[in-house]
């Protein structure tokens, strides 16, 4: 229990309870990042007598599981993003600041941002992860990843521009290269992206072109491992692969990428795929939390934390979500998914409340509610432990679950309208090529 | 009538009608720009036996009258933009190319784009206008205008960032400067922008901040002339001004801007307004059509055309919409509004059809259906000649008219949902700060 009595030498031995309370400084909780973890922590402190400051370099919370839909023109950015202030506007003990974190002084208990120094008593680091190229950073320019809204609109522009350029191309080889899309990485993001691109090419825009047949587009999913969706049970992985192939996606397994440039990719076995649009869904690297704290991290930059989500020796600091390497009680790694981040945020809020009250709190336990991935318009795979679904049933569960967890009634209503119309009309509403370089 | 008989020396005096028809080359109509004018021209040629090529440097048609709603976070870009291909997908005689026009060879009848040369028999130039600073181009960086989606998301980011920075500011003078918004220009765009910003500050986000009172924001509309909405009857201009002032907008008339930089603006009478967010709605400059054609233009860069919408001496070239300076039969200038552009596009299609058939067509006549401008959530002014509305009635007409003319059922449904929810909940769904410089 950490209490700062500001006038400790008041001299009176008979402590007036109210006067004492008034001299206890309200504890300051600073939360870095307003993703699923950071928001859950802030909301978990809503009834607490603490000052909460949420710092994020963006003004919005992003519903990342639907980001691939922005990248493939199914949804607009505003439909999956919500201003952080709006989400927390009724929670009076929260202040939101849009700032970029530059460092942390653990001794002085200060967060340094570009513009100010912010003192904390408890610090929650929930700054997430970015996609990573693991030693091949030069691939970033030709093979963008998908973590932010800017990434998604960039990928959307690249996909749509490829069809535009193919329509204008005079040369057959050019046209084939322009109509070949390579998605690197067979996890949920890669599977969802590849399925959505295939559907876009083969169903949605097929009547729009005169000189090319967009349905002849080649979509190749390249995965270094032996299966897609490796976190799923083997049967569902196999079903996902079959669903992808039914949509016309070529799935290349045990195919590591060794070269990636504007011409396309080369695989470890020497095969070359000519493509003007390579998308990266093969790995993530955690934010700089380990560097800020000067504590050990794993290969993906995630801070090693104990069962209380503290980096060893830092009981006032919690690292959660994709920034933390957490193992559950059975020694398995907790996956980098939204529900896990949310549970860590909730746990952290409980731990801080218990700490202030002088109570004990148990270690973090991850409750696995299952996994979901969608493959095109009408198929998905779902693993809820004993219940495993695939096809239309899983797709309906996927849609309902994502609508349900999407923040805000208004976004839910808008996304519902869009999905219902997309289902009926095979349309995609957000087919804009917007250029970040252009005014 | 222009017919190219490809085998003119076939020798047979007894012309077989069908054989003759087959040797007539299908006339090529090239349309530059897919705004209201260009699209109307393409659609007007839907039953014509011609090859139509629509060239635009973007892949979408933009519903410009609602662009200010994107700039003030009320709508998403995809709600007011529609892929050009999608709009024209069922019209088999149209090819759409996303290219940037670089020049026109009138002698050879060729349009030169960045990548190709495109031959035409008839050319329709409908490339619109950009906002302009009339000799003060250095103001562009500090006072963005509103013509494209990129402009709108940039303005949205500036407005929302100003509130964010004010919340973080420690200094009262900084805070006041950050909470002062200056809109330069009292035409429809300026009036609509100023009204929407005032409403955003005073109603929508007022609960979201802890350190600032967003409703104390100062919104100043600066107009060089003596009235706002000068194209409206004086009574409605006066009503618009009063509505703006009821929303808390300071309206400064006869106030020309003489300096504009990051500190704010200076007016001709020496007054200075400290502001971190100056928006430009004071003037437009037509596209480069006059330069491409080497023909005379007016001060705003608009090509002088005759009553047939041809630049004098160029019967195969039509210049329409905001790129043309057109006077109607009574000698008045046709205004640069969407319905006028649409009517010119329709007229041009009719003129080309008549020309191919060897028929005559009358000169272009502008039918003025009235003017509309909206001021905040529940007031507008409307001038339909004898019928003049203001307040809630005009606002309802404004909403219905804009929904009606918005392209595509899906967009209409989405915008309707958003407006209905905004009306009930005083919310704005698209409050994202996205940075064009950031990946």
From TrEMBL, chains A, B:
Source lineage: Bacteria, Pseudomonadati, Pseudomonadota, Alphaproteobacteria, Hyphomicrobiales
Domain of life: Bacteria
Enzyme Commission number, as recorded: 1.6.5.9
Reactions that this protein is recorded to catalyse: a quinone + NADH + H(+) = a quinol + NAD(+)
Organism: Rhizobium binae
Protein name: NADH:ubiquinone reductase (non-electrogenic)
Occurrences of domain External alternative NADH-ubiquinone oxidoreductase-like C-terminal (ranges): 370-420
InterPro entries in alphabetical order: FAD/NAD-bd_sf (IPR036188), FAD/NAD-binding_dom (IPR023753), NDH-2 (IPR045024), NDH2-like_C (IPR054585)
Pfam families on file: NDH2_C, Pyr_redox_2
FAD/NAD(P)-binding domain span: 28-345
Gene3D superfamilies in the cross-refs: 3.50.50.100
Family: Belongs to the NADH dehydrogenase family.
Keywords, alphabetical: FAD, Flavoprotein, NAD, Oxidoreductase, Transit peptide
